[in-house]
Amino acid sequence: xxxxxxxxxxxxxxxxxxxxxxxxxxxxxxxxxxxxxxxxxxxxxxxxxxxxxxxxxxxxxxxxxxxxxxxxxxxxxxxxxxxxxxxxxxxxxxxxxxxxxxxxxxxxxxxxxxxxxxxxxxxxxxxxxxxxxxxxxxxxxxxxxxxxxxxxxxxxxxxxxxxxxxxxxxxxxxxxxxxxxxxxxxxxxxxxxxxxxxxxxxxxxxxxxxxxxxxxxxxxxxxxxxxxxxxxxxxxxxxxxxxxxxxxxxxxxxxxxxxxxxxxxxxxxxxxxxxxxxxxxxxxxxxxxxxxxxxxxxxxxxxxxxxxxxxxxxxxxxxxxxxxxxxxxxxxxxxxxxxxxxxxxxxxxxxxxxxxxxxxxxxxxxxxxxxxxxxxxxxxxxxxxxxxxxxxxxxxxxxxxxxxxxxxxxx
Amino acid sequence: xxxxxxxxxxxxxxxxxxxxxxxxxxxxxxxxxxxxxxxxxxxxxxxxxxxxxxxxxxxxxxxxxxxxxxxxxxxxxxxxxxxxxxxxxxxxxxxxxxxxxxxxxxxxxxxxxxxxxxxxxxxxxxxxxxxxxxxxxxxxxxxxxxxxxxxxxxxxxxxxxxxxxxxxxxxxxxxxxxxxxxxxxxxxxxxxxxxxxxxxxxxxxxxxxxxxxxxxxxxxxxxxxxxxxxxxxxxxxxxxxxxxxxxxxxxxxxxxxxxxxxxxxxxxxxxxxxxxxxxxxxxxxxxxxxxxxxxxxxxxxxxxxxxxxxxxxxxxxxxxxxxxxxxxxxxxxxxxxxxxxxxxxxxxxxxxxxxxxxxxxxxxxxxxxxxxxxxxxxxxxxxxxxxxxxxxxxxxxxxxxxxxxxxxxxx
Amino acid sequence: xxxxxxxxxxxxxxxxxxxxxxxxxxxxxxxxxxxxxxxxxxxxxxxxxxxxxxxxxxxxxxxxxxxxxxxxxxxxxxxxxxxxxxxxxxxxxxxxxxxxxxxxxxxxxxxxxxxxxxxxxxxxxxxxxxxxxxxxxxxxxxxxxxxxxxxxxxxxxxxxxxxxxxxxxxxxxxxxxxxxxxxxxxxxxxxxxxxxxxxxxxxxxxxxxxxxxxxxxxxxxxxxxxxxxxxxxxxxxxxxxxxxxxxxxxxxxxxxxxxxxxxxxxxxxxxxxxxxxxxxxxxxxxxxxxxxxxxxxxxxxxxxxxxxxxxxxxxxxxxxxxxxxxxxxxxxxxxxxxxxxxxxxxxxxxxxxxxxxxxxxxxxxxxxxxxxxxxxxxxxxxxxxxxxxxxxxxxxxxxxxxxxxxxxxxx
Amino acid sequence: xxxxxxxxxxxxxxxxxxxxxxxxxxxxxxxxxxxxxxxxxxxxxxxxxxxxxxxxxxxxxxxxxxxxxxxxxxxxxxxxxxxxxxxxxxxxxxxxxxxxxxxxxxxxxxxxxxxxxxxxxxxxxxxxxxxxxxxxxxxxxxxxxxxxxxxxxxxxxxxxxxxxxxxxxxxxxxxxxxxxxxxxxxxxxxxxxxxxxxxxxxxxxxxxxxxxxxxxxxxxxxxxxxxxxxxxxxxxxxxxxxxxxxxxxxxxxxxxxxxxxxxxxxxxxxxxxxxxxxxxxxxxxxxxxxxxxxxxxxxxxxxxxxxxxxxxxxxxxxxxxxxxxxxxxxxxxxxxxxxxxxxxxxxxxxxxxxxxxxxxxxxxxxxxxxxxxxxxxxxxxxxxxxxxxxxxxxxxxxxxxxxxxxxxxxx
Lengths: 411, 411, 411, 411
What we know:
Chains A, B, C, D: This is Argininosuccinate synthase. Chains A, B, C, D: Belongs to the argininosuccinate synthase family. Type 1 subfamily. Chains A, B, C, D: Homotetramer. The structure is a homotetramer of 411-residue chains. Chain A is an alpha/beta fold and 411 residues long. Chain A has three domains: 169 residues, HUPs (Rossmann fold, 3-Layer(aba) Sandwich), CATH 3.40.50.620; 132 residues, Argininosuccinate synthetase, chain A, domain 2 (Alpha-Beta Complex); 34 residues. Helix content of chain A is 42%, strand content 19%. Chain A is built from 14 helices and 14 strands. Chains in contact: A-B, A-C, A-D, B-C, B-D, C-D.
């Protein structure tokens, strides 16, 4: 037993039903002499949830909570980030990054209501997720003990884990060889490992992808859709009002069928290393692009330009696990203020991986023929241009005069 | 004659051979009583250059200079911006923006060598180009007189212009009805006007596009290419060394055939209005994506993240006509320092509008299996994670402790 | 009469009672054949308001409104900017910049209620204030006609103005020779002109200053004060609750007596030129420093660092006349979110131009002995440092390994 | 002996001669069975260097290197940062932050030339310096072993250390009770600890300060000095050319005598906690202010505004120990480009803690009477203003039109 562990009586474990968190149950019991409560936060991984209760109990958990966090996840995390236009390193839609905090928050709630002494998670010591989990836990309870077995135990390989499980009669998941390491929720799937660890090689999408088809396999005919937004939040597809989770599910289906939202990137982890992953975000890619298009007619230039910088910061903060922080909340306050007029309809044409603009309208549009044609008696007087250019160029002129003067003084 | 114009004896005119700049020649002569020297800056518009000399003289110019600026344009403007990763409003590759300064610089040179008193351009008073032209002129000669007939003359329509031309026996370009307003050079074509002025309507790409086919019309088989970079600059395609202009021409052809690099956007002009345009950048889109992919393995995270902010500023500065400015040069100094290790090869798969990563390598890669697998005795010790997370989370913990204390003090 | 002016029947004029705006009244009447309504926006210039009514009527105004905007100015403009920590170019506390919008807003209100066709102001064509005025007017009424006589009339000097006034029996202000051009309100005084136009010369503060004494003339004994803030807004001095305007007045007096808040700077105007000014901001300097000190214990590092960037943008936006804009409002939303815990007391020692920290406390402090001493069983475990440093350094290590490898491969 | 330590045969120790690093010598020998080479990096702590050789040998070192790094420190670190205008959190001039890397670089050089296996330092696990040291070591040798005894040994108090020293006959420094923890070099002194740990109390500057007098004790007469810069670097005082270190020494003396450059701040450490310190930077404060004043006439507005953001990043990067990083080098490239015209003379009046501008000139000034007075036939035509304001306001007008239209459509 780990020294000083006798004060841990009850542990809440972030449980997925996979091999890793399954063997964590007996490991915690053996090393801490504690009761283990399994908690599953459902953020849309869906089909993976079947049979979890039985499996957890059989693995030694005293209790299991299966919490449906999908709506909360979508409304308060996914859409908040969509409004910010935040993409980590210009590409990654943060699907895993904000799934950790929503789950961690629930873990603390259950730990409090169940009187647990500690929270355990199955993240490895190499990744970002340990940081995201633990920061979120501490944000809600600074004194909560956190246990991360992966950083300390002696199990060094999948084989070690299987043996450890067999010795304790833990139900083994069906054998899957050579599978990519995957994180899935309603918003995305990420794929890592195997041949993806070699950035010099092209992945075989037909083997990697689960939500989408490769562009080559998409239909030869384009699909048109229309998305309605209210204050930056998607509210309807093709005129049909839906709640957030349904919008994402619908778009995942349509987008996935058209080969949309596949990204293959090398990203910089918080902990100083680069990792290569393939992401599937069919619905996300469509929503981000639609939102951008709507903003292109509803945000003025100054706001757009500064918001682009806010987006970068927002993405970094969320990627680095600081969802529950004053900075993220302040960035969101900025973003939400900008979204007050981001209301309207965007029509898109989806075709073999392409998202093509097919029309955008908004009651708050800052673009309209009235402004754009600038007829002779319109809002724009070309005579103003001369003065504008002269004053706008004044700083340039002054510098040029200085240079001329310096040059002459030298000669 | 315009008052106070008697001191203008010789004008250098930025000449294109189109109707607008053709009638500017007699207009200048009639209104200023001056000699007009036509200057054509070739930045890759190519086929539009035939017969220009004859046309200029026939329109009344005393002389014409046709200057091939293509290499300078590509090496010193296009690639400098490519290295910066600068896209205006996240999309526009600045094809028109940096073509104006390179031409303006040449105009000043010729004005000086020919002893001209003024420089004239054919930009309207509604757009960005007048600003770009005039700032660049002033950067090289603060005292040079600038004449912009479009902002002042009484010709209000194409019909007015044609009549004006006919009256003076100016050779008319072949009649083209209902054509989009277009700006073309080796890097891009932009299209504006007609139905594009209505953002709620989908453009008919088959009518708009000139360099590219729509994705639907691209081949059913993907095309693979490999691009080599040295210090951020493309130097070879498929292993064959080429100069910059040839690289762009080659990629325009390949990219155009595969429906790559078509963007349909509403952008914010410097002068406060929104404009909708369709851009074709087949080669540019490929080069930008390839460069990004190479940077993803050769730049460290800190540098990448800050450079993303520099990119936004770089794009704004260039879009707004300040190419020749201390700020742009200082931004370039930053960028060039970052590019010292951006050397390597990027393989891409082009397919119906998609640019798909097919492998990247670099002698300076910061990604390699050695770092990535992080085996037990490798560079990464998972035991370090605990300490890392604890200290990284310290600020969060301290805030959480404060909140708890405040809450308790209230209760 | 100016052509096309016959449609202007009634003009609302931003009136100060000075020579410039006094002669504007007959000028408007003569050139537009209109009625002129004078409006004085009191933002704390105080003593300059005596006798204005009589003077306006005598100068030909049909009516005068003297509006006390001081509280609104302080609560909604000054403190909003104080919370943002915004200083233009790191120095200027924006005293003139946000006084223009609050007045312009009132002008539009009165123009609407009085049924006026146009708004006139007395700003010159060389400065920032014309921009600030006109943007604010347009923000509330895009169609309101704006008249800026200074940009167009033929009066080229003070002598011209005096003669113009005499001819029309306009009451002349007392003769003041060689006075600095000055803008005053409750928040600040700015001084420009005369010898200040030469940055190579030291100003004679004894001649320039009006609110403050030079540091040399301040008392030999320091003055201690204590300022209480609630959510970033000052609410009490030395324990005595006061409304905002009284806090500023009190601090102006104390600060002015101690030689606080004098700045002598060369700043970059929006319209491309540099101008040199001396600013007096005794109360402002104290409030900014006190607020900063309080934030140093109540904001976490991430928030502080990003807010420092927001401050720069906020200052630029306000300086450039865009108070009433989505960007400024979004920046304020960010700022206000950060201020939720900026509550507490700051004690300062004022001594001959110095503001010296003499103690700060807050119920929301993120600094406390408990966190700071970090005793052995406290919140901080030094053993964590090793892991932290190792992972924090990982990116550096990886780069260093790459360089070593490259170097070896070359040898 | 620490396990796995047998492979360490020779250690290079960053040695100061204080109690902490003195006892580190026997501790390393006892725990690693290794030879210890003491290295002192002189960055201007000066008087602390006497008798160090004898002391190191007596403490058990086999050898000592006393390296004068002062010129390198000043030219390549201090002035590089001065040019950037970088102040951490707007205040701290980074005196300790960049002293660590210059020393660490030398440690690696000596470790390589002496064939050492490891580098040891005496930084605690609570501070920033461990990070700065170790990142710099890794930047030059990714494989170098680093030993940080303070993070692991059992000595928990000064008393423990003294006993440990006595037992081994280590020469004890003269007894000093209740002294502030201090870091000193040619650029600054920092003070921490004792009553400074309580931000609610005013420090007694007469007890804390060593380089400066409190403003109250400064002379009643001001001191005037003039500083000449070339490309952002100070090169002369009062017309007398001096090398960098002499400039700083001279200004420290003058500034210190006038109570200049004392800062009392609560700052955010990298490792998530706040610390309160008093800094003395007499020469630094003068140089920063002089440099700022010179930039106010030599940098154009755009460059100044963006450089202010670069300054913040530069300070963060240096504070966080990343001196030797591509990002810092790229930021420096930006900065150095901006400094090409930052040449000229700045005259200052120093008086009891105040630095007052007394005149600035530059051959590259962008301010001059010629530009500033803007006479009637000068570079500025007031008629341009109308057009400028109209176009500059266009975005505001368009938004206002939209709002009006929306409002009308609702009514």
